[in-house]
Amino acid sequence: MTPGALATALSETQTAAATQSAATQTAAAAQTFAATTPTTVAVGVAVTPGTPTPTRAGNGTPTPTPTPTNAGGAPFGVAGDFPLLNIGGLAEFNLTWWVEHVSTPTQAFNGGLAKILPNLLLAILLALLFGFFATLQGNTMEQHEDEISGWLAPVTRPFAAIVTAGAAVSANLSARGLSWLVEGLKLLAVLFALGVVFSFLDPSFSFTNPSWLLMVVAVMLSVGLVGMIDDVAVVAYSRRHGGGGGIGLNGGNFVIALGSMIISRLIGLAPGIIFGSAGSAQGELRGNPGTHSLLGLGAVALVALLAWLGSTFIPPIPGADLWFATLALLIFAVGIQTLFFELIPLAGNRGNDIIKQHKWLWLAGFVGATFLFIQTQLNPEGSFVGAFNQPNMWLLIVVTSSFCVISGGLWLYFWNRDRRAKG
Fold first, then answer.
1. Which of 166, 255, 285, 286 could cysteine-pair with 245, CB 3.0–4.6 Å?
2. pTM of the prediction?
3. Which tens digit of pLDDT belongs to each residue from 61-105?
4. Secondary structure (DSSP) of 177-225
């Protein structure tokens, strides 16, 4: 071996020895660190944009990652780039509008006669006014029905065309055996639309509130139950006496519901107008119209009063109890408003059929429904003079005045015209 080759071999041997020594020291240091440092295992860590990344503190202990919390319910949306829809459970229900503005039986009669008597006298006065002017209107309509119908034709003709088209579509679907499916879907759609519209009577209602869907469901159930129970009673009576009939949808009531909600919010009515039906009895109904109206409104009154009595035993504690209390008071509120508006003896209303055949029964029913409406929703404090400073009572004045002025005006117009014709 030459001296140069020998020098090269010695140099490589020293380098290898140094490398092996460094590796040994590194391994020893790693074992020492592993023995003295806690082992951190990351399992399924998902980093969400905007979420802090875990960092190691100076003492070697991992800093815990803050866990985002939800205000309630499960959000629906995309990365929070637009307002989310929150859906919460019964335990999170927190909307108190209806339990605050519809009195339970205990609250309604808590003040004794001093609180009850003014509203009762007001209800009797309204019943006498409506009864008197309804008689004038009825006599006028009987004598001049064709002429008055001609006046209203431009308004009623488009609605009649819509009804005719809807009947044709229903008949076509019935022939194909699909009517039950389509009618069911239409019913759900109409009820959902009414539920959303009437939910906005509550100024605090919002789709960002986790309780929004439960509120809509409560309104759907109350409007659906009250709006259909009278028609179910009428159809059952008709079929029992050999007739036919069924329940058809009133999709056009959505416009009425929307208008009443907007007026309620603009004027500041509390709890607001929640009158509207998703369906009506249609077809070959057998029996007296007066009997049909008595059965229908009797069913509504029964359901409303049972729900009202039930509300006494449900404490309005936030959560499931509050939702059930809201549902019970909603059923009562919808029912009592339905009774009040339906008992107004206008042509096409059930009250018009009843007053023609059972005047005293109509009077008792109207006084009862009007008194409960005023006592539980319009003027729960029972103040006679101060009541007329409230938007709720101004609504009652407008409804009553409009009915009296229109009915009296029609009678006066035809009486004066007939008198001149004879002279």
1. 285
2. 0.72
3. 455 555 444 444 444 443 344 444 556 688 889 999 999 999 999
4. T-HHHHHHHHHHHHHHHHHHHHHTTSTT--TTSTTHHHHHHHHHHHHHH
